[in-house]
């Protein structure tokens, strides 16, 4: 029986009220542990690209949810501090052999998080269950990578960046940051937004499907995605609220402007690669 089949069997039993924290067996727990192991090795992922579009892998997201539904909260310890959770933290013994660095005092990897080779994780940072962080990626100080978020290879997440997850509904694809992206400090990427390959995003930019992306390269307005190889930043545009005279001088709403990458932008990004060595 495949891991997918086993997870779906647990899911159906749980939905039929035949399986709970109280009735789960040791074999059921072994299935959940094997699933978390597969997430950590990258054998399974919560989303995959099909015909150019990112789609959720529903059975994987169900497996993540089952790890909350079928486990009780336990008292645990980390660094001499007690905490209470359904999942332990991820074992990081494999990081050294794969050339990945994680600094102490606040770098937290939850069980079921994948971190690739030659990554750098700066404290404090948090990578949640089901997240996938690709090879060579920098997760900087005060960054959060949400549950099931998909971060590509050679990505730079600037300090204080939030990458949301999207665990539920299971059919919705999570946030995706593709290979080679650079997100400036303070960026927020939420609600299943897809940041295209090699894009460079200015600091404090909010990327969410509710905010329009004005792509000046193709002269179109997009929602929920930033095309590859764009330089993006926040601007404010006139809002229809201004028509109601609620504010003197009109009202404005945030928007994202996307332009061609410039040589200066690429040079600055490449210089930062030296810091990862």
Question: Key features?
Answer:
single chain; alpha/beta; 29% strand
Report on the structure:
The protein has 277 residues and is α/β, with parallel strands linked by helices. It has a domain at 3-72: Tetrahydrodipicolinate-N-succinyltransferase, Chain A, domain 1. The N and C termini lie far apart (43 Å). The longest helix is centred in the first third of the chain and has 16 residues, at 26-41. The radius of gyration is 20 Å and the shape is globular. It has helices at residues 3-15, 26-41, 58-69, 93-97, 263-272, and strands spanning 47-50, 53-56, 74-78, 81-85, 101-102, 107-109, 114-115, 120-121, 125-127, 132-133, 138-139, 143-145, 150-151, 156-157, 162-163, 176-177, 182-183, 188-189, 194-195, 200-201, 206-207, 213-215, 220-222, 225-226, 230-238, 252-260. The model has no long low-confidence stretch (mean pLDDT 92).
CATH class descriptor of the domain at 3-72: Mainly Alpha
Q: Please, what is the average pLDDT?
A: 92
Strand runs, count: 26
| Spatial strand sequence of the major β-sheet | 5-8-11-14-17-20-25-26-22-23
Shape: globular
Helix fraction, binned, reads 10-25%
CATH architecture of the domain at 3-72: Orthogonal Bundle
CATH topology of the domain at 3-72: Tetrahydrodipicolinate-N-succinyltransferase, Chain A, domain 1
Classification by helices and strands: alpha/beta
Termini separation (Å)? 43 Å
Topology (elements, then pairings):
Blueprint: H1 3-15, H2 26-41, E1 47-50, E2 53-56, H3 58-69, E3 74-78, E4 81-85, H4 93-97, E5 101-102, E6 107-109, E7 114-115, E8 120-121, E9 125-127, E10 132-133, E11 138-139, E12 143-145, E13 150-151, E14 156-157, E15 162-163, E16 176-177, E17 182-183, E18 188-189, E19 194-195, E20 200-201, E21 206-207, E22 213-215, E23 220-222, E24 225-226, E25 230-238, E26 252-260, H5 263-272
Parallel strand pairs: 5-8, 6-9, 7-10, 8-11, 9-12, 10-13, 11-14, 12-15, 13-16, 14-17, 15-18, 16-19, 17-20, 18-21, 19-24, 20-25, 22-26
Antiparallel strand pairs: 1-2, 3-4, 22-23, 25-26
Helix pairs in contact: 1-2, 1-3
């Amino acid at each position: 029986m495949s891991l997918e089949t086993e997870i779906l069997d647990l899911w159906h039993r749980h939905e039929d009220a035949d399986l709970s924290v109280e009735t789960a067996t040791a074999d059921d727990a072994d299935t959940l542990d094997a699933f978390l192991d597969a997430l950590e090795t990258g054998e399974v992922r919560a989303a995959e690209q099909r015909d150019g579009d990112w789609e959720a892998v529903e059975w994987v997201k169900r497996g993540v949810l089952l790890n909350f539904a079928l486990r009780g909260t336990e008292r645990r310890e980390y660094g001499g501090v007690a905490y209470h959770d359904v999942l332990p933290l991820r074992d990081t013994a494999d990081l050294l052999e794969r050339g990945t660095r994680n600094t102490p005092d606040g770098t937290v990897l939850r069980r079921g998080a994948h971190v690739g080779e030659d990554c750098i994780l700066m404290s404090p940072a948090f990578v949640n269950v089901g997240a996938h962080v690709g090879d060579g990626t920098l997760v900087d100080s005060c960054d959060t990578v949400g549950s099931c978020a998909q971060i590509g290879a050679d990505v730079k997440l600037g300090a204080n960046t939030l990458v949301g997850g999207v665990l539920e509904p299971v059919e919705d694809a999570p946030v995706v940051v593709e290979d080679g992206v650079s997100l400036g400090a303070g960026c927020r990427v939420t609600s299943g937004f897809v940041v295209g390959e090699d894009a460079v995003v200015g600091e404090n930019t909010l990327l969410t499907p509710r905010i329009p992306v004005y792509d000046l390269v193709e002269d179109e307005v997009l929602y929920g995605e930033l095309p590859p190889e764009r330089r993006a930043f926040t601007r404010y545009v006139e809002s229809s609220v201004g028509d109601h005279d609620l504010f003197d001088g009109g009202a404005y709403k945030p928007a994202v402007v996307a332009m061609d990458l410039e040589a200066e932008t690429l040079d600055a990004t490449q210089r930062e690669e030296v810091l990862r060595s």
